[in-house]
Amino acid sequence: MALLARPLESVQNYVDFFTAQPLPVLKRTVRDLAVLREDMETVSGKRVAAVVLGDPLMTMKLLTYLQTHRRQAQNHDITTIDRAIMMMGLEPFFRLFGDLPTVEDTLAGHPQALIGVLKVIGRARRAAHYARDWAVVRHDLDVDEITVAALLVEATEIVCWVFAPTLTERVYAMQRADRTLRSTAAQTAVFGTTARDIQQALVRAWKLPELLIELMDDSKVDHPRVRNVLLATDFARHVAHGWDDAALPDDLAAIENLIRISREQLLHRLGAPPDAQARFLGTDDQG
């Protein structure tokens, strides 16, 4: 599997490079699917879907496969993992995804990049959890679509860590050296473009369902479903820095406005620690 050591000339060059590589998945995903395969006669599609949804890379792999191998009679996109597995059937699923490259093997020579990508994947999983919870509160039409979209918002950052570890490490090093440096500025300095620009082209090259692309589109943030997805992504990114991150007050206000619950209820749902609850509720000086 080829890894990118130097920046490329254009967004299209990055898209061509990334789409030419087989997407690896987490080693745990390979192991968990192997266990379920042994029990294929009795295992449920929901159990398989739960393993897939634990891994943004496996989720992308499955959705991309279905979109590029859709039947002529299929007149609608498959936007959730449950439906994707139901459409394929368990036996074809396990046959197609039985021998997959892993992230851990791909980045064996780049331990810092492996740590970096695992952090972003963990953040994506938390974003999907938050997004799903808020979608339930909002009585969303399809919480599974919201969950998948939130899991995939940072797909390009994950792919950059996997296939361009040296360049991505450089971006993070620049931001560590200058805390005021915006990620888009660091990405442009290193890659010559931003993750957002690559993502907009990459999701179309992967032929992800149009609905999921729209749910990840920050130009459509006025729509409540899109706001649900992107707020979950922002909150997961900010809270990963700690509950004292400067962006959290604005995040909390926006989330309250989205799901219409009190600050106290929201902090409880988010699992905020007692000191953060006291600070955000204005009770930290009461004894």
Helix-strand blueprint:
Layout: H1 11-20, H2 27-38, H3 45-53, H4 56-68, H5 81-88, H6 90-96, H7 103-106, H8 111-137, H9 143-152, H10 155-163, H11 165-177, H12 183-191, H13 195-205, H14 210-215, H15 224-239, H16 248-259, H17 263-270, H18 274-281
Helix pairs in contact: 1-13, 2-3, 3-5, 8-9, 8-10, 8-11, 8-15, 9-15, 10-11, 10-13, 11-12, 15-16
Organism: Pseudothauera nasutitermitis
Protein name: HDOD domain-containing protein
InterPro entries: HDOD, RNase_Y/CdgJ
Q: Which features does this protein show?
A:
287 residues, mainly alpha, Hypothetical protein af1432, 18 helices, 0% strand, RNase_Y/CdgJ, HDOD, HDOD domain-containing protein
Q: Could you characterize the architecture of this molecule?
A:
This protein folds into two domains: 91 residues, no CATH class; 171 residues, Hypothetical protein af1432 (Orthogonal Bundle), CATH 1.10.3210. The mean pLDDT is 94. Helix 8 runs antiparallel to helix 9, helix 9 packs across helix 15 and helix 10 packs across helix 11. The chain has 18 helices and no strands. With 287 residues, the chain is mostly helical.
